[in-house]
Design goal:
The chain is α+β, with helices and mostly antiparallel strands. It folds into two domains: 47-266, Cyclophilin (Beta Barrel), CATH 2.40.100.10; 293-490, Cyclophilin-like (Cyclophilin, Beta Barrel), CATH 2.40.100.10. Helix content is 16%, strand content 19%. The chain contains nine helices and 16 strands. It has helices spanning 2-7, 91-102, 180-188, 195-203, 224-230, 315-326, 404-412, 419-427, 448-454, and strands at 69-75, 79-85, 111-115, 119-122, 154-157, 170-173, 216-222, 247-254, 293-299, 303-309, 335-339, 343-346, 378-381, 394-397, 440-446, 471-478. Strands 3-4-6-5-7-2-1-8 form an eight-stranded antiparallel β-sheet. Strands 11-12-14-13-15-10-9-16 form an eight-stranded antiparallel β-sheet. A hairpin with a 3-residue loop joins strand 3 and strand 4.
């Protein structure tokens, strides 16, 4: 499941060539507007591969010596977080963070992405995951070192697919305490961990699946309770806090022998009671009425796909798609990315994941609505880290049928689902882990077998079909009362 989460983000890219973003709960990306951005197999995908098992001592909880350089991060309305640095294992990473802090770079910036039981991310002057730079002006390679892991309280750089794309964006881990069962699951997915790191993850907690993909350069030794409080703030569908969480200042200081409190158990911290997920009715399979506006997508050599639209839940998303279709925008374009048991993606005039725009000329925010989910046959917009970057690229879900065990596993990664949504995924299938991060605006009601045939197309290493799958036309029509077949079992 974890490998699918890493590989299965739906994103668009700007310019030449992914803490993703793209709403992906397990991805940490710093998307730069001048480069390809967000989570995708089309270019710089998030690495979730932990390093080969190496039984080196873990340094995260090594006490600093008096006079050592530390960081004091003052977070408005929360308090001060103190961070021990590790120049011996992350020289460039430490140098960059200290240099930026001395320049006042982080003062007044926000934590723009917060995911409970995972991490809090900040350091972007644009506040949306697309900005930031290093002290050298460009990106830098901070590397990784097996002495430093993603234990709760670790601080590391977000990147765009490798540590060579580090900038100013960083995250502080909260994570969860791991069990032997968790590690057995990781092993089944090809992830290996040393005995010392396992011991820490089973006691202190953290996010072990990030090891080997990001530059860890420090560890919180005072104020970890503050980080855990922040992770519980209310956020929108793109994991952005509804109320800004502001770093008043990030200062370079010296360790004066103060108490070391590495673990959340060292604090008087009580996690808040989690509210249940709102169990709203799922609208995907609401039958269209005769005369209602629908879309017919003719795919060359495959057949017609008819799509019901939901302007009541995705007004801008529907308007954009309808108007682009009326202009003939999609006619002749291809499905440039196809992943079996996941989705087919198209709508890019460049055919490589880097192009496209909305009917208004740029990006737009289509938002999300929990009445619409990623059931098999759902159509939604690809984005570059949030729904505010919707354009013309879209995808149609194929996915897989879920089991209760699959939901249990997803919940260990911080995902939560309503009972109504679970019922749909258990019966119809889909891609549940995408919910809340992408604008779903329609549902295939006839021709789902066509979509499932397209997902069988032979592809190259970038998931691009070796033979073009062409959208001959996308036309806006009125529903004539024909067959409604939502489930692949009906074909």
């Amino acid at each position: 499941m974890l490998k699918r989460l890493a590989a299965a983000m739906i994103c668009t890219f700007t310019a030449a060539s992914l803490f993703t973003g793209c709403g992906q709960k397990t991805g940490l990306t710093s998307e730069n507007q001048d480069s390809e951005r967000s989570v995708s197999d089309d270019s710089s995908e998030i690495s979730t591969a932990a390093p080969d098992e190496v039984n080196v001592p873990i340094a995260n909880f090594t006490a600093p010596e008096k006079g050592d350089t530390i960081i004091e991060m003052n977070i408005r309305n929360y308090g001060t977080v103190k961070i021990r640095l590790f120049p011996e294992y992350a020289e460039k990473g430490v140098e960059n963070f200290i240099g930026l802090a001395k320049d006042g770079y982080y003062d007044g910036l926000t934590f723009h992405r917060v995911i409970k039981d995972f991490m809090i991310q900040g350091g972007d002057p644009l506040g949306n995951g697309t900005g930031g730079k290093s002290i050298w002006g460009a990106k830098f390679d901070g590397g990784v070192d097996p002495h430093l892991i993603h234990a709760a309280g670790a601080i590391a750089y977000a990147n765009s697919g490798s540590t060579a794309t580090n900038g100013s964006q960083f995250y502080i881990v909260t994570g969860k305490v791991c069990t032997d069962e968790d590690f057995a699951g990781y092993a089944a997915q090809g992830l290996g961990f040393s005995d010392p790191s396992k011991e820490i993850y089973e006691t202190a907690g953290g996010a072990p699946f990030l090891d080997g993909g990001y530059t860890v350069f420090g560890q919180v030794f005072d104020g970890l309770d503050i980080i855990f409080k922040i992770q519980n703030v209310e956020t929108n569908s793109s994991d952005k806090p509804l109320e800004d969480v502001i770093m008043d200042s990030v200062k370079v200081s010296e360790y004066n022998g103060e108490e070391l409190k590495w673990y959340i158990s060292d604090y008087d911290y009580e996690p808040p009671t989690e509210a249940p997920v709102e169990n709203v009715p799922i609208a995907n399979f609401t039958a269209p009425e005769k005369g209602e506006t629908i879309v017919n997508m003719k795919i060359k050599d495959y057949g017609d796909v008819k799509i019901k639209l939901f302007p009541e839940y995705a007004d801008k998303g529907v308007e954009n798609f309808v108007e682009l279709a009326k202009k003939g925008y999609y006619d002749g374009l291809t499905f440039h990315r196809v992943i079996k048991d996941f989705m087919i993606q198209g709508g890019d005039p460049k055919g490589n994941g880097t192009g496209g725009e909305s009917v208004w000329g740029g990006e737009f925010d289509g938002g999300t609505d929990n009445h619409l989910i990623h059931a098999a046959g759902a159509i939604a917009y690809a984005n570059s880290g949030s729904t505010s970057t919707d354009g013309s690229q879209f995808y149609i879900v194929t996915g897989e049928t879920y089991t209760e065990d699959m939901f249990t596993e997803l919940e260990t990664y911080g995902y939560r689902f309503s009972d109504n949504a679970k019922d749909v995924y258990l019966s119809n299938g889909g891609a549940a882990f995408l919910d809340g991060s992408y604008t779903v605006f329609g549902q295939v009601f006839d021709g789902l077998d066509v979509v499932f045939k397209v997902q069988e197309a032979e592809t190259d290493s970038n998931d691009k079909p070796t033979k073009d799958v062409i959208i001959e036309s996308v036309t806006v029509e009125e529903y004539d009362g024909g067959d409604v077949r939502w489930n692949i079992s009906e074909y």
